[in-house]
Amino acid sequence: MPPAAELPEVVVLLATYNGRRWLPEQLASILAQEGVRVRVVALDDESSDGTREWLVEQAAADPRVTVLPSMGSSGGSAPNFYRLATLVQPPADGYLAFSDQDDIWLPGKLERHVRLLREGGHDGVSGSITSFTPRGVRTLIKKDYPQRRFDYLTESPGPGSTFVLTPRLAALVAEQLSDADSPARTADFHDSLIYALARGAGFSWHIDGTPTLDYRQHDDNVMGSNTGLGSALERFRLIREHWHRGQAVIHARVALAVAPEADRAGIEGMLALLEGHGIRARWALARRSGQMRRRPRDRRIIGLLIAIGVW
Fold this sequence. Notes:
- The protein is α/β, with parallel strands linked by helices.
- Helices cover 42% and strands 15% of the residues.
- It has a 7-stranded mixed sheet with strand order 3-2-1-4-9-6-10, sandwiched between helices.
- Helix 3 packs across helix 5 (167-178).
- The longest helix has 16 residues, at 243-258.
């Protein structure tokens, strides 16, 4: 292995809120990553369970950990990550990663993803995961279905905790989040936003089929791994309330804000259909549903839901 000074540096953004019970295992799995130099920058969102105090203790004991000053409540996980992404950038020859407070990173996660970025010339990488429950049930959540032209309108390429970005993409994300005229901050999830910016700008993104983290399932998950009956019912409720369509509109606007001139017409066409009303717009959008999801089953489902006017 090269000397530590020659290893690529990865800055890991850790957004926390009342995660004290899970953080020791999560932080230990990050700091144990080999083949890279890790630096963790944490921002706590006004926790009441001692999370911030514990993080400050870790920062005092390990120079690789930095805790940013309190900024008041952000109102949610995504806004807290948005703050981090605008405040912290990787070095010019390094990378930016994102971490939840309750997962467990597998050995070699960052080394593998940095290698995939470098070898493939990509600007972003994400991956499949293994979810696990308190009862020990483990489930592979496959994310590496082939990308489609407009999949970024309706889905993320994996949990944000699997993301690693190049400085170029990290700078684009920070720029859009800092721009008062950008629709970026209106996106409800940072992972979907980052993917929409990357794909909209024409950057290359790789989805890794090898799981590199264990994704903890518990009652406090913001979204979870989207498995099980309860998750399916919640997704259907959001579909009926047109939340997914509203987010797709935001993602289209986000992509349009950064798109090369050659790609603008296609995105503008999708945005017009997403914002359109009436049966003609509905059927036109349904015919394009094959470009909106990666998994074949999901493409058929969303096409049907659009056609019958539910989505």
